[in-house]
Amino acid sequence: MDAPSRPPRDNEVFISVGRKSTQWSRVDYGNNLCFGRYWFVRDSCGIVCCIFTWLLIAYAIFAVNVVIINSAIARAAIYFAWCNGILFNGLVLLAVVSHVRTVMSEPGIVQKNTATDERIRELELAPGTVIMRCPKCVCIKPERAHHCSICKRCVRKMDHHCPWVNNCVGENNQKYFVLFTLYIASLSLHAIILTIHQFVLCVDKEFAGCSAMNPPTSIILLIFLLFEGLLFFLFTTIMFCTQFCAIWNDETGIEQLQSSKERTWQRRKRFHGLRVVFGDQCSIWWLCPVVAPRFAGRDKPYQYSVVDTEEHAREPLRPEIT
Ligand SMILES: [Zn+2]
Ligand SMILES: [Zn+2]
After folding, report:
1. Structural domain count of the chain
2. Is residue 292 one of the residues assigned to a domain?
3. Measured in angstroms, how far is the CA atom of residue 133 from the centroid of ligand 1?
4. Per the database record, which ranges form the Palmitoyltransferase DHHC domain (predicted)?
5. Nearest to 103 by CA among 57, 49, 157
6. Single pTM value for the model
7. Does 319 fall in a domain?
8. Domain range for residue 274?
9. Distance between CA atoms of residues 245 and 252, nearest Å
């Protein structure tokens, strides 16, 4: 019997019973469901942010295709129109699919109500085992899991809750979120280049015959597109770099704020970190938001933590479980 090295803190419990593994039931999605089937967080702020994102993407599609691509077709620059039309709309499609996948992917939530006295008794854990419990979900909290107050669930390897995707970025959907930032940054850069090219091309002619619309409307649409492109490019490039560094260093946004002493797991850095998020085999599918990452032997999602994160409300458990 391993004696505990220190007394339990408020949200820890020592279980003094025999060893036994337990079967876990399917994860209960709770209220975060759409049509009773798909993961969708019912947060009004997140839903508004998502709609706003979609409207801005719709505007970019309209401005690029109607003002810039149409103008290229009108001046018989067919090759330019086709290449840029396919590239821009292809990036939009990839970004939209990545967005939908991030919004509607369960981020890696932890089963609720697994830390009731009865369930803990059923576990028959090894003597001296320390487990962490989230008092809000009443769940046994795996290592690196954190509680999200918007999703109202504990999420494994939670990075942060992003209102632009109305979801937590966690173990199960980080790939889609990274791809979303990558494709939005790429299409924004493409839109910026196209807009500047259009201005250079048309400014001498005072935009006469430059698009199907009248010159003032074209200029206003292009200025707004340039402004939107710059804003999105900066925002998503920063997000992409932050995410990439977090994956490369195997440290989530929350963990970066914690001291290294609190870290009890083995960090899997660099390419190993990328493989943990995007899948075992490095391939072109890493860039495809339709394909879910494939893992030959993913870590068991439910592990007992032995650290105190001091994150949640203090709700002492009764340690006298026999
Ligand atoms: Zn929780
Ligand atoms: Zn969340």
Report:
1. 1
2. no
3. 8
4. 134-259
5. 49
6. 0.79
7. no
8. 12-19+29-287
9. 9
